[in-house]
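To whoever is covering the structure queue this week,

Two jobs came back overnight. Logging them here so there's a record in the thread.

Job A:
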Amino acid sequence: MMLQTRAAIGILELDEGHELGESLRAPRDHSLLNPATFDRPIVTEIVEGAFAETVIAGDPSLQDACIRAARRLVERGAGVIVGDCGFLIRHQAAVSAAVNIPVAMSSLLLIPALLRQLAPAQKLAVITANSVYCTEDMFGIEDPANRARVVVGGIECGEYVRNAVARPLVRTSIDTIEREVAECIAQLRATHPEIGMLLFECTGLPVVANALRSSTQLPIYDITDLCKLTLGSVACN
C-alpha cells in the first residue's frame, strides 16, 4: 500500500530578530507556527527586511522579497503558503501569481465570505495590530453598504504591539494579549452593538481565540482557520 504524506504549510515569516533563548522555546498552543495547530509539518522562510512596523505601514519594496521567499518555500516542499502578518495581504496578488500552489497571505481574505454568514443588520469586527493602517482597500469589498458593515478596532497602543516591534522581539504573556484584545472588543461592542462576528487580522492572536470565543460568545475567525481551509483543499502526495 502506498503511504501518503500530508502537505506542509509554508509560512512567510517576518524578520523579528531573536530574543536570547527564544529559539529554544516551543511555539505556543494554537499558534500559526505550531505544527500541532494543523497536524502538518511547517516550513518557514524569513522575508528579508519585513520588520513588523515596515509590513504594517506598507512598504512596496517588500514585494520582491515576498516572492523570493515564497519560491524558496515551494522548493522546500510547501503545499500551501501563508503570511505571518495580516498586512501582507498587500502582496497577495503578486505572490499567488509567482507560485503554482495556493496562497493565503492574510485572514482579511475571509471578509467577503464572513459578511455573507451574517444577517444584513449585523456587523463584522476586525481586530488588528494597527487600526490606522488597516484600511478598506484591504477588505475586498466593492459595495459601500457592505463596507459599512465592517468595523475595525486596533491594539496598537498596547504592550503586545510594542513588544512585537521591539528589537529583539519580546514575547508578551498570554494573559496580557487576552486582556488587551478583550478590552478592544468591549470598546467596539459598546459603539457597535450590531457586531455578530470577529475576525483577527493579527497572526499573533489565535493563541487567545478560544478564550475569547468563550468570554464574548461570538464566532471568531483567524489566520489558522483560513490555513486549515486551504490545507484541506490540497491532496496528499
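Job B:
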Amino acid sequence: MLHLRNVFFALFFIPLLTGCGSGLSSLPELSAPESSAGSPPATMDEAAMEEEEEFAEDDIAMEEDAAVEEDMVAEDDMAMEEDDAEAAADMVMEEDEEDAAAEDDVAMEEEEEEDYEDSLFGGEDEEEEADPEAALARQYRLGPGDRLSVIVFGQNDLSGEFEISGNGEISLPLAGPINAAGLTTSEFQARVTKILDESYLVDPRVNIDVVNYRPFYVLGEVARPGRYDYVSGLDVRQAIALAGGFTRRGYQSAVKLIRDEGGDRVEYKAGLDAPLSPGDTLEAVRRLF
C-alpha cells in the first residue's frame, strides 16, 4: 500500500512541479540596458549638473542679448539727443533770423515814418528858443485881434487901449486909422510917434505894449480842437495840453505849425518844446503806424 502511494506521488506531482519550472524558463529575461558607447549609465548628479550648465548658458545668452539691446537703446537715445540739439540750434537760428527780420522791419518802419513826416510837414524845423519871451518880443508881428495899450505922455485924451481890426488897422484919436498888421510893437510905436510929430504934437513921447495877444488855433488829432487865448511863454506842448492832448492816432513827437510871416503863411515842423506865437495854427497830424 505504501508502495502504491509513492508511485502515485511520483506520477502526479513530479510532472506538475517540472511544468511550473518550464513555464518560468520560457519568459524573457529582464536585463539592464547597455549604453551606446559602452560607458556606464549617468548618475542623477551628473544630469543635474548638465541641466545647470544649460541654464547658465541660457542666462549668458540672455545677458548678451540684453547688453546688445541696451547698446541699441543708448545709440537711439544719443541719436535723439543729437536730433534735439540740431532742432534747438535750428530754433535758435530761426529766432535770430526772426529778430533780424524784426529789426529790419523796425528800421523800415522808422524810415517810412521819416518819409511820412517829411511828406506831412514839408517845411523847416522850428528852432527852440532859450528865452521864448525874448524871442517873442523880438520876432512877433502884430495882427488882427491884438489889443494894444497906447500911452502918449501928457496927452490922456490920446491914450488908451485899442484893438487891431480885421483889416489890420488901429484907430487913434487925431491920428485916425493907422496900419499895424505885420509890424513889431517897436515899429508900430515909431510909426505912431512920427505921425503925431508931423501933424499934431511937438516931440511926442509914445509907448505901446500888447495887452492881449490874438488867439491861436489847434487842429487835427487832439481831443478838443479849436481857438485858445494866447499867454506869454506858451509852447507847443502846453498848447496841445490845453486842447486835451493828442488822440490815440495822433503823431506825438512833433506838429505842423503854420505862422503868418509878413503876409505869407509859412509851415514848420515844430517840436513839443518850440515856442508858440499869437495867431499860430497848430495841426496835430495822424501817425503812420
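Note for Job B: The chain has a mean pLDDT of 80.

Please reply-all if you pick these up so we don't duplicate work.
Q.
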